[in-house]
Amino acid sequence: MFSQSKTPAPAEENSASPSMSRRGLLTYGGAAAAGAAAGAAVTVLITQNAGGDAAPAASASSESVPFYGAQQAGIVTAAQDRLHMAAFDVTATNRDDLISLLKDWTAASEAMSAGREAGDTGAVNGPYDAPPEDTGEALGLSASRLTITFGFGRTLFKNDAGTRFGLDSRLPEGLIDLPHFPGDALEDNRSGGDIVIQACSDDPQVAVHVIRNLARIAFGRATIRWSQLGFGRTSSTSREQQTPRNLFGFKDGTANVKAQDDELLDKHVWVPKSSSAGEDWLTGGSYMVVRRIRMHIEIWDRTSLGEQETLIGRTKGSGAPLSGGEEFSEPDFARAGRDNKPLIATDSHVRLAHAQSNSGVKMLRRGYNFTDGSDSLGRLDAGLFFIAFVTDPRSHYVPMQMAMAQKDRLAVEYLRHTGSGVFAIPPGIQAGGFVGEGLFS
Amino acid sequence: MFSQSKTPAPAEENSASPSMSRRGLLTYGGAAAAGAAAGAAVTVLITQNAGGDAAPAASASSESVPFYGAQQAGIVTAAQDRLHMAAFDVTATNRDDLISLLKDWTAASEAMSAGREAGDTGAVNGPYDAPPEDTGEALGLSASRLTITFGFGRTLFKNDAGTRFGLDSRLPEGLIDLPHFPGDALEDNRSGGDIVIQACSDDPQVAVHVIRNLARIAFGRATIRWSQLGFGRTSSTSREQQTPRNLFGFKDGTANVKAQDDELLDKHVWVPKSSSAGEDWLTGGSYMVVRRIRMHIEIWDRTSLGEQETLIGRTKGSGAPLSGGEEFSEPDFARAGRDNKPLIATDSHVRLAHAQSNSGVKMLRRGYNFTDGSDSLGRLDAGLFFIAFVTDPRSHYVPMQMAMAQKDRLAVEYLRHTGSGVFAIPPGIQAGGFVGEGLFS
Q1: Mean predicted confidence (pLDDT) in A280-307
Q2: What is the pLDDT of residues B189-226, one digit of tens each?
Q3: Between residues 370 and 399 of chain A, which touch chain B (CB distance below 8 Å)?
Q4: Which of A340, B88, B159, B416 is the 20 to 30 Å CA partner of B315?
Q5: Contact B319/A140, CB-based, under 8 Å?
Q6: Which residues of B414-432 are buried (b: 16+ CB within 10 A; e: fewer)?
Q7: pLDDT confidence tier of residue B430, bands split at 50, 70 and 90
Q8: Nearest Cβ partner of B378 from A225, A301, A374?
């Protein structure tokens, strides 16, 4: 993860271009070359180290993912291992300041996604008498498949005081306030926000570096409302990834929409062209629903294996549905056992979450496990930070969550939702543009 | 990190021995073979995947580190990338229950260190009507260089009510209550504890899995008092590791004692044979000092590069001392610049932390960066979770910290200590024994 060069870099004397990669900058006499991997929208950094021997740094986690594209990165990108997400309250009061914030964030995000410092006068080559434009803790680390994804909350468009930034006519209909669900225990300081930024990377220090620098850049214009770290992605978003496990110890996300499923993505994830001109800016974007779901893991851990599998509806080992087969077998909800009861219980998680129970809707889930230390009772403050991208939260999240909160015995007995947010995810950014540009045209 | 096998494992039908590795257990038709890497006390797992093609999983992070040895693992072990540490309050009141807890923890720790489940009847092969002896979220993950290190706090030996477990005659003199240092803002629920467990791994889910399962095993006998996650080790403990960066963006731990420095380890880290028979159990062990150090990073980030470097006493890019040279050059504290002032300021961090300012003492630092979300003012709750192993906190920590808390401008202006602990680290465990066994003989 760290550069292998043994010779420390006299970076101050380095005449490298400011746009050079962090890795290249710190490698004594190093030269960085960027080339697109054949057939994949991925840039691979090749580093030549001090000894002169070519050291291809092209492990999976040293790759960089392009920031520009038709969609924002970090949605169908194969899920990385670590998350730092932050929601901001915008404190700027006029439209120009908001636009300049979004422009500054766009420039810094593009640079960091490519493995460069957040600004041209970064931690090692800036003027001596000014704060560096990069905080430095990611120097020497690769981009580690970093993606940075922006979303807009309902309160950016209007709040109790009325319209904000002249944007209320651009508020998309799907950007709703979620209803109260049974069992919700939402904390205000873990919910909402005008703008959300999702930073995902295979290296947590790279993801934390992003949120920190974007918060630094926002000084005087926006402040962090809440932030959340996550590890151990809980859903695979690519057929090439194995299904990971959540903190209940079960495989999670087996039935997820995958990056390879173009048709499903169009139907369930991307926002189609709207009949309302005010919503045009969101065409080709998506909605992100986030829920911080605390798990009562101490109680769960004292539950029998049989009870755990009954609640989930799948086996713990392979993840196969209790109706038989293997992980990717379709659950057979009608199949009954010896006592004539269905093998997959009517109040099981897999049944209630399945598209078949939800008018055929699917979502692209991209959540992470979290552990935020322990609470005053010595219980781990741990669970699932649920992230889903959907074409419309009204059809693709609310009905399913209402059913689960009422009927799913797993949700009722072992889960508590402590944070929540819904954000409109604008489509991708083109070079020269900035995130959310369509909102202001 | 996840097994690459595409074919899900029908693990329930698997007749594998319960002592088989998690990875082997979940690989369909897989066979796990363990062999010692030549010349290193490291076990490498080789996995054959479903397709029959040999897939050597022997990346650095898939290795396992032996739990048994002359010293506990996790001290001179090359620092892993992730930390989960927890301090426990023992609620058991008699000596036998404490001993059985330590025995149970030892058995589970040995198993998890080898990449196996925490108990024989784990998440996938246990009886259907009993809670599994492993919580399952690390199934399919390798050991990822996991180490588990145990330490005992002063309150295990005696507290305000008097002796505990008949251990007060075994309280080592070095296991002190730290004095109050200027600027301390210690929180009770982040400090102290009867027993500490440090789990380090290259995979956070593996480290979290350890603390969770040891807490589960402790049910009714000990509860978590505090826990802390860390990422991005801030000190290298091996000459083969590059010096990483802390959240000030500077290289940290350049002058650290390394695993290769046998003589320094004997002098500064390991506890020598004591003249007091009551302390014999600690011979060859160490002391661990932990401090949760919150950094005022938002203020730091608005400080000029020059001021940052002056406060630290090193350049931000290469980490070279301001007196010249490169990272590993010895600082020349006498060398003055044009204005006749020393190039390395008298109140700089590198000068006050240097052995030369501290009667020649050194420590083995093994800390981690942390970010625990954000506070109510939108500031990242981030900093350094300081961990040091020393031969005696009275000589090797207190004087240095007192000097830094009083004179080090970096510490005074940018740091706040919010958590603290001192623990006696018993020597290593042999097969058949249990951690801290010497305390009870």
Answers
A1: 96
A2: 999 999 999 999 999 999 999 999 999 999 999 999 99
A3: 371-374, 376-380, 382
A4: B416
A5: no
A6: bbebbbbbbbbbbbbbeee
A7: very high
A8: A225
| Cα separation, B53 vs B378, whole angstroms | 51
Q: Tell me the β-bridge partners of B33.
A: B46
CB-CB: which of B2, B137, B306 is closest to A129? B306
CB contact under 8 A, A369 and B137: yes
> C-alpha A125: how far from its chain's center?
32
Q: pLDDT grade, residue A62 (50/70/90)?
A: low
Three-state SS at B321: strand
Q: Which residues, other chains included, contact A138 with Cβ-Cβ below 8 Å and sequence gap of 6+? A: A22, A112, A205, A206, A209, B245
Give the residue among A353, A378, A86, A404 at the shortest CA–CA distance from A230: A86
- Cα gap B292→B370, rounded to integer Å: 9
pLDDT tier for residue A276 given thresholds of 50, 70 and 90: confident
How far is A16 from A25, CA to CA, in rounded Å? 7
What ipTM does this complex have? 0.84
Residue contact A26–B317, C-beta within 8 A: yes
Distance CA A137, CA A135 (A): 6
* Under 8 Å between Cβ of A231 and A245: no
State how far the alpha carbon of A129 is from the alpha carbons of A82, B75, B304, B432, in Å. Answer: 35, 40, 5, 61
A210 touches chain B (CB under 8 A): no
* Predicted pLDDT of residue B60: 53
Structural domain boundaries in chain A: 1-58
- Residues forming a β-bridge with B227: B86
Closest by Cα among A382, A74, A379 to A231:
A382
Tokens of A271: 């926002």
pLDDT higher than threshold 90 for residue B27: no
For the ranges A366-380, A409-423, B101-115, which has the lowest average pLDDT? A366-380
Q: Is the CB of residue A8 less than 8 Å away from at least one CB of chain B?
A: yes
Q: What residue spans of A324-429 are helical by DSSP H?
A: 349-353, 393-396, 398-407, 409-414
- Taking CA atoms, B435 is separated from B148, B199, B311, in Å, by 11, 15, 42
Closest partner residue to A228 among B189, B245, B373, by Cβ?
B373
Q: Which of A3, A19, A8 is nearest to A125 (CA)?
A: A19
Distance CA A56, CA A106 (A): 29
Whether B425 and B149 have beta carbons less than 8 Å apart is answered as yes
Q: How many residues does chain B have?
A: 441
Residue A235 or residue A33, greater confidence: A235
pLDDT value for A234: 67
**Residue B245's closest chain A neighbor by CA?**
A137
CB atoms within 10 A of CB B56: 11
Amino acid code (one letter) for B234: T
- How many whole angstroms separate alpha carbon B193 and alpha carbon B170? 17
Question: Residues of chain A with pLDDT > 90: what percent?
Answer: 71
User: Which residues from chain B sit within 8 angstroms of residue A2, using beta carbons?
Assistant: 241-242, 244
pLDDT, tens digit (0-9, with 9 covering 90-100), for B133-148: 999 999 989 999 999 9
Angle of the A95-113 helix axis to the A204-217 helix axis, nearest 10: 150
Select the residue of A12, A140, A326 nearest B315 (Cβ to Cβ): A12
| Beta-carbon separation of A249 and B123 below 8 A | yes
**Alpha carbons A4 and A283: distance in angstroms, whole number:** 44
Mutant choice from A117, A125, A242 vs B, greatest count of B C-beta within 10 A: A242
CB proximity B223 to A under 8 Å: yes
Q: Provide the pLDDT for residue B4.
A: 33
Closest partner CB to B249 (pick from A139, A211, A247): A139
Encoded amino acid at B6, one letter: K
Q: Which residues of A touch B137 (CB under 8 A)?
A: 232, 245-249, 369
B129 to A304: CB separation less than 8 angstroms, yes or no: yes
Taking an 8 Å cut-off on Cβ atoms, the answer to whether A10 and B320 are in contact is: yes
